[in-house]
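Standup notes
- DV: blocked on the single-chain target, sequence here:
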Amino acid sequence: MTYCGEAPRHPTWSYQDQQNWSLIPVQSFHYPAAMDASSVIELRQYALQPGRREDLIALFEDEFIEPQRAAGIRLLGQFRDLDAADRFVWLRGFRDMPARAEALRSFYGGPVWAANRNAANATMVDSDNVLLLRPADERESPLLQAGTSLLVATIYLLAAPVDDAFQRFFARRAMPLLAAAGAPVAARFQTEYAKNDFPALPVREGEHAFVWFSRFASPLDYERHLVELRRSREWREVVEPEVARRLASPAQVLRLEPTARSLQMHITGALHDFDFLAGDWTIRNRRLRVRGAASSDWDEFPATSHVALHLGGIANVDEIRFPTQGWSGMTIRTFDPETRKWSIYWVNSRTGTLFPPVAGGFAGERGEFYGDDEDGGRPVKVRYIWTRLGEDAARWEQAFSLDGRKWETNWVMDLTRPGR
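- DV (later): unblocked, structure below
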């Protein structure tokens, strides 16, 4: 079923289509969002056969995500390296080293890996570039969240193990400058020196790594960050020389683009995300006349809606009327407290059947929701972006993608309270 044909898939409103030694890396629907914190992390960089990255990503995300999670492995994100077309980067976490060994034995000794390992290995040149890490910060922040389109990872290989003095220096001198330049540090890790008790998967040994990550809404935001950082005299004259003094080799910076499913897995919400919608709205619609043809020809037409909260806010329903279009529709939104995700369903007056849902949640004033459907007989990925614009305004945008990377916005609804 198509979302944006004569009837919109969900009348929900607002979807927005998205070398310094600082390294910034840039995270289906019904997985637990909150799992035990990981005390052991693998940062895995795979060198691939030319042109095989998309093959591996498709295989990985179709076959390997659920079995790894079932084995107790925490998937932290899968990425395309924007500076190396044949490199695939991903991170996974484990509760501790004994749990890691048990989980790896379960997954790599199981039927899914046995059935697909030859296909996976055929895409790879080298899969041994693996840093075994542990958190360098007591607090844990997700690598990915709503609005992230780039994760930048900076890898420092130091001449000696990370000590308290370096940790204090980085936290007190580097992190405030990075935040001021638009790149708050999302997570920090350092080498885990425990023996690799699953030798079938080698890891890099004899190195002293310190790795930190920052999130960006776009590559342009990252470039702006670098400009701001280079303007900092303290960064140039204090932080960079101190880091350089400790490095055993030049820092490596990975600009990482999260895969579509990686983003979907990590977007969560809260019970009251949609409370702001309760009541009546006047809507201005802009709908692309032809999708998937690089068109800039839009229809404009009005609508009105009424939104009601139910079951203490865990569900809400709206009815939207398009007086000039000859049809109407209804949106049903439900919140799953376990996964902390909203599922959004749409039914219109012409078909009377529920369309496949999109799922996600809000981070601040922005919400992202993803799903899969068909448009004109071809499979498409669907993205909604909601933007809350104060008490009396909001925006919803819908976009389709064939590959989860390039998105075309095809419907925009601007909502205002009646009389505003």
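- Follow-up: The chain has seven helices and 19 strands.
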